[in-house]
């Protein structure tokens, strides 16, 4: 059991080394936001036991004058991973499940573990949805 854990750690370490050396560069932007949430974001290329993944970390801060509640409509944040030719590789969305008070924030993560090399950029959209 110990041997497997050590080998897995070494594989993840080498994967991280090669992920950083490959020059994987991804850009990201907020392309639409119809809510009072202010989105800040960053990405990381990470090595996992199953390969390389891109993780986009988003902080959504309530920059409005009222709390964002869980009563409909609620904010939904969507992350779309795209190729250089603007073809969609993957898209995921998260609906806020907890209220966000004025000046408070919440963290979200969007991860992609397949076709990582095809991704050139990601786009974030935040809109109100009736759920």
Question: In a few lines, what is going on in this structure?
Answer:
With 131 residues, the protein is α+β, with helices and mostly antiparallel strands. It has one helix and seven strands.
List the helices and strands and how they pair.
Elements: H1 2-21, E1 27-33, E2 37-48, E3 51-62, E4 74-82, E5 88-95, E6 105-112, E7 121-129
**How many angstroms does the end-to-end distance come to?**
45 Å
Portion in strands = over 45%
- Spans of at least 5 consecutive residues whose pLDDT stays below 50 are 1-23
Mean pLDDT comes to 86
The Rg value, from CA coordinates, equals 17 Å
Which structural class should the secondary elements be placed in?
alpha+beta
What does this structure look like?
- By secondary structure, the protein is an alpha+beta fold.
- The protein is 15% helix and 50% strand.
- It has 1 helix and 7 strands; from the N terminus they run αβββββββ.
- A 4-stranded mixed beta sheet has the order 1-7-4-5, with no helix packed on it.
- The protein is elongated.
- The protein starts with a helix and ends with a strand.
């Amino acid at each position: 059991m110990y041997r497997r854990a050590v080998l897995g750690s070494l594989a993840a370490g080498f994967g991280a080394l090669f992920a950083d050396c490959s020059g994987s560069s991804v850009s990201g932007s907020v392309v639409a936001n119809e809510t009072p949430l202010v989105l800040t974001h960053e990405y990381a290329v990470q090595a996992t036991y199953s390969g390389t993944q891109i993780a986009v970390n988003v902080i959504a801060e309530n920059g409005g004058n009222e709390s964002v509640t869980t009563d409909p409509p609620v904010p939904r944040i969507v992350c779309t991973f795209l190729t250089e030719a603007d073809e969609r590789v993957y898209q995921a969305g998260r609906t806020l499940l907890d209220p966000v008070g004025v000046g408070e924030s919440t963290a979200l993560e969007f991860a992609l573990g397949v076709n990582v090399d095809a991704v050139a950029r990601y786009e974030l959209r935040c809109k109100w949805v009736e759920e």
